[in-house]
Structures are given as structure tokens and as C-alpha cells.
Amino acid sequence: MHKKLTLSRKKTFNTGFGMILTAFLLIGYFSLVSFSEDTPENNEDPNGEPVENQSLDTGEFTRTDLRMGERLFKGLVAFESGTHDCSSCHYAAPPDTMNWNPSAYELARQWKMEDNYSIKEKLKSPVGVRMINDHEGMRITGEEEHRLFAYLAKVYEEGPGELRAVPVNAFIFWGLGILMALALVDLLITRKIKVRAFHVMILVVGLVVHMQYAVAESRNLGRTQGYAPDQPIKFSHLVHAGEHEIDCNYCHQISSFSLSAGIPSNNTCMNCHTVIREGTNSGRFEINKIHQANESGQAVEWIRVHKLPDHSYFSHAQHVNAGKVECQDCHGAVEEMHIVMQTEDLSMGWCLTCHRDSSVDFLDNPYYEIYERLHQDIREGRIEEVTAAEVGGEDCMKCHY
Ligand code: HEC
Ligand code: HEC
Ligand code: HEC
Ligand code: HEC
Ligand code: HEC
Ligand code: HEC
Known about the structure:
The chain starts with a helix and ends with a helix. By secondary structure, it is mainly alpha-helical. The chain folds into four domains: 2-35 and 167-219; 54-158; 225-344, no CATH class; 347-401. It has 18 helices and no strands. The longest helix has 34 residues, at 2-35. The site of one heme C (HEC) has 21 residues, from α4, α5 and α6.
């Protein structure tokens, strides 16, 4: 009798556990499937034909053009001059590291922008070291060019694409959520699993993890530590401020007397790039963009990286000039970055911590003469130095209007 009871309990325990495990695996499977939606294969209909695109509708290119163009570009079929995998340099999907070569999308955009653009001619009479070296032996016919254009038209319509990280956190969050719901249902209604500790364990662990996510998310709301967007021109601080040791102030000169550090205008770039027409890493393509912007009179649309909320006030001059704080203390080793990244969280706590830790040039700055008590404390040896926090660096009004 006693033995039988434990046996059946074990059995219900196993079915319950099996149910939950199956549910968990199913969620995993469906989330993976839905996250890999936009792989190239899925853009084809069941007959293996690519989805409609505008150029096909207007009759400029046929489906065969498009299919062959893509295969030529990806090195799957040979050009008359041999097999060349253009996509090994002109990448079709966004890379997760710095890639200096123009992407397939950028080639497409250039073709749309430039009158009488001819791949065939560019390959036949290359200008510049990289153009010559990288395309050695690559000659294409008029028909092949037409097919490449068919492919580039599709790439152009699809846009540059986005780098997608696998959403591990979302998976854990939702997975746990569903597991908790199942545990709750079983605890209150179905009662398949008799061991209560099991439900309690799932609920407690689930709640703790969910709370942690909630706290982390709300703390980072509106904050963008680690943000490093791709810029319209592959401008590298490592190349300029690092390798070529150009002073930060050459381009951000207003930082010493204004609130903002400013982003250099096209003219600043042209000071050097009227003469320097080719980069070691990128060839002419990126530097050409400066010249194109110059000719069209359109400013380069740099994407802003660091941004405080509007309710707070920050002055570069105050820090760089008066405080003698180094750019790197707040922005990290920018001269080692190809792509600028926000290294600090720019939170209020970050500002205050530094103000409490930094001493100011108290005795020699006439600006601080009004702090009579602090001067007296120093004279009488009660304190040795004065921190930024003590001279107003903690007053709400200094940072908030
Ligand atoms: C080894 C890498 C590499 C391969 C392979 C390669 N390219 Fe390039 N390509 C480059 C680089 C780098 C540039 C930029 C050079 C420059 O602007 O000086 C470039 C530039 C170009 C340009 C000129 C862009 C412009 O508007 O100025 C065209 C067109 C082009 N490639 C087509 C092709 C085609 C078509 C193939 C395949 C048949 C191919 N490339 C294969 C590296 C490569
Ligand atoms: C040759 C010109 C040049 C020099 C020299 C230069 N920068 Fe820049 N800087 C730029 C340009 C252009 C941008 C905008 C594009 C970008 O974010 O990469 C920029 C962006 C930045 C940003 C990000 C701005 C934002 O949007 O939040 C920081 C921070 C920065 N620079 C710091 C520095 C520091 C520190 C140095 C010296 C070590 C330096 N820069 C040297 C041209 C320059
Ligand atoms: C005390 C910290 C600190 C120092 C030192 C500092 N920055 Fe900044 N920087 C910031 C903050 C904070 C922002 C965002 C400002 C905002 O959104 O109002 C910023 C923004 C920028 C920007 C974006 C454009 C702008 O002006 O808002 C550039 C470029 C920049 N800094 C460059 C520099 C350079 C170059 C130096 C050194 C000469 C420097 N910074 C020194 C904290 C600092
Ligand atoms: C004080 C001179 C100077 C200024 C100002 C300057 N550059 Fe440069 N730039 C250089 C030098 C030097 C190189 C390296 C050329 C090489 O690789 O031989 C370079 C290279 C480049 C490259 C190619 C990098 C590579 O390795 O392929 C790009 C893109 C570029 N600069 C963009 C810009 C932009 C955008 C601006 C304006 C915000 C700018 N530069 C301002 C001197 C300057
Ligand atoms: C790396 C250290 C550091 C960081 C980070 C920093 N500060 Fe400062 N700050 C200083 C120093 C040093 C001074 C004193 C400058 C002087 O001598 O006047 C100062 C002064 C100030 C003042 C002037 C106070 C007065 O006496 O009038 C303001 C306002 C200010 N900071 C705002 C900010 C804000 C807003 C942030 C965050 C976004 C920030 N600071 C981050 C070092 C820092
Ligand atoms: C040294 C500059 C500085 C001082 C002094 C300062 N703040 Fe802030 N504060 C900031 C910055 C920068 C932010 C925005 C960054 C962030 O998200 O924390 C901020 C954000 C805030 C926020 C919004 C928080 C949020 O999550 O949106 C409040 C409220 C606030 N501060 C209140 C105060 C009060 C009250 C004081 C005086 C006791 C004070 N601050 C003093 C720099 C300062």
C-alpha cells in the first residue's frame, strides 16, 4: 500500500516534469525559428524564385538576371574571366567588426547616386592602389554587368540591414515567465506534481531573475553605455588621433571655450583630404564621400553618440579648460577606437562620484575667492584640498535648470 503510493506519486511527478520540459523546448524552438526569419533563403518563394522587386516590375531586369547576378557576385558561378567572389570583400550582411571595404549596399547606393556608373569601366581602368590590387584579373562583360546591377537593385531595395544579436535575455525572460505560469497553474488547479517545493522553487527563482531584469532595465532606461553606431563615413579616431597623432583640438577645437565639443565640418576634413585622396585601409571609396559631400554642399550626417537628457546641463569648457580634465577620463581611449563608443554610463552618479574625488585648483583660481570658509580651513590646516563637490559640484542647480 505504502509502496504503491510513492510509485504513483513518482509517476505524476514525471509526467508533470515532462510536460514542462516539452513546453520549454517548444518555446526555444519557436523563438529560434522566428529570429532567423530574414535569412536570404526565406526571401524566396517555394519555387525558389526571389520575391518581387520594383526593378523586376518595371521590366528592367528579368528573374534570370537577378538570380545569375547574385550567384556571380557571391562567387557561385564563374565570370568569363574566372570565378571572383565579390562578396568576400563587398559583404552582403553587416559585419560585427570594422570592415573597411564598401559593402554591397554601398556599391548599390553609389551606382544609384552617380550618373553613368559602370562597374565594367571601374574594373577596367581602376584608380588607386587598392582598386588596382584588389580587382586584379577581374574583367566583366556588359551582360555580366547587367546581371550584377540586377542584384544590386535588390540589395538597394532591401537597405543596409541591421546586425541582429541573438536575444538570449529575452529568451530567458519569456521562458521563465511561461515556466512560472505553468507552475502556478499546476499548483492551484491541475495538481499533477505533488511535491510543492518544486513549484515554490520555480516561482522563487523566476521572480528573483525577473526582478533583476526589471531593475537593470529601469536603471538603463534612456542610457546608452556601450553605444557605438556605424557612421556614414568610416572615419577612424585610431587612424587620425592614434596613428597620425592629430590633436583632439584640431577637430574639436571649440571644446575649450564652449558647452559643446562640436563635430568638425567638411571643410576641416578637406584641409587634409584635398591632398590625401586614398586611405591605406579603405582605398578611395570613403574619402570620396567627403568630396561628394563637398560638391553637393550637403553636410555629412554624423550619428550622435553621447547625449545627456535635456534636463541636465554640461559644459566642456568648464571641465577641459577650468578643470583640466582629460577627454579620455570621460570618453575612454578614443584614439584607440576605429568606431567611437560611449564608455561611461553618463549617469548622475557618475558625475557626482568624480566631483567628490577630484580636487580643484583652489588657491590659484580667483573664481573661488568667494569661498571664505574653505580658504580659512586650508590656512588653518584643517583640510588639504578642496574637491569639485565642495565648490558647487553637488548643487542641483549647477546641473539642472
Ligand atoms: C579583395 C577584396 C575585393 C574583392 C574580391 C572585390 N573588391 Fe571591389 N573593391 C574593393 C575595395 C577595397 C574597393 C574600394 C577601393 C577604392 O575605392 O579605392 C572596391 C571598389 C569597387 C568598386 C568601385 C566603387 C566605387 O564606386 O568607387 C566596384 C564597382 C567594385 N569594387 C566591384 C567589385 C566587383 C564586381 C567584384 C567582384 C567581381 C569586386 N569588386 C571584388 C575590394 C574588393
Ligand atoms: C580629424 C578630426 C578628428 C580628430 C583629430 C578627433 N576627432 Fe573626435 N570626432 C571627429 C568626427 C568627424 C566625429 C563624428 C564621427 C564619429 O563619431 O566618429 C568625432 C566624434 C567624437 C566623439 C563622439 C561624439 C558624439 O557623437 O558623442 C568623441 C567623444 C570624440 N570625437 C572625441 C575625440 C577625442 C578624445 C579626440 C582626441 C584623442 C578626437 N576626438 C580627435 C573628428 C575628430
Ligand atoms: C567631464 C567629462 C568630459 C570631458 C572631460 C570631455 N567630455 Fe566630451 N562629452 C561629455 C558628455 C557628458 C557629453 C554629452 C554632452 C551632452 O549631451 O550635452 C560629451 C559630448 C562630447 C561630444 C559630442 C558633441 C557635443 O559637443 O555634445 C564630443 C565630440 C566630445 N564630447 C568630445 C570631447 C573632447 C574632444 C574632449 C577633450 C577635449 C572631451 N569631450 C572632454 C563628457 C566629457
Ligand atoms: C590633419 C589632417 C587630417 C584631417 C583634418 C582629416 N584627415 Fe582623414 N586622414 C588623414 C591621414 C594622414 C590619413 C591616412 C591616410 C593613409 O592611410 O595613408 C587619413 C585617412 C582617412 C580615411 C581613410 C582611412 C583609412 O585608413 O583607409 C578616411 C575615411 C578619413 N581620413 C576621413 C576623414 C574625415 C571624415 C575627416 C573630417 C572629419 C578627416 N578625415 C580629417 C589626415 C586627416
Ligand atoms: C572625470 C571627472 C568629472 C566628471 C566625470 C564630471 N565632472 Fe563636472 N567637474 C569636474 C571638475 C574637476 C570640476 C571643477 C572644474 C573647476 O575647477 O571649475 C567640475 C565642475 C563641474 C561643474 C561646475 C561646478 C561649479 O563649481 O560651478 C558642473 C556644472 C559640472 N562639473 C557638471 C558635470 C556634469 C553634468 C557631469 C556628468 C555628465 C560631470 N560634471 C562629470 C570633474 C568631472
Ligand atoms: C554634477 C551634476 C549634477 C548634479 C550636481 C545633480 N545632478 Fe541630477 N542629474 C545629472 C545628470 C547628468 C542626470 C541625467 C543622467 C541620468 O540618467 O542619471 C541627472 C538626472 C537627475 C534626475 C532624473 C533621474 C532620472 O532617472 O531621470 C533627477 C530627478 C535629478 N537628477 C535630481 C537631482 C537633484 C535633486 C540634485 C541635487 C541634490 C541633482 N540632481 C544634482 C547631473 C547632476
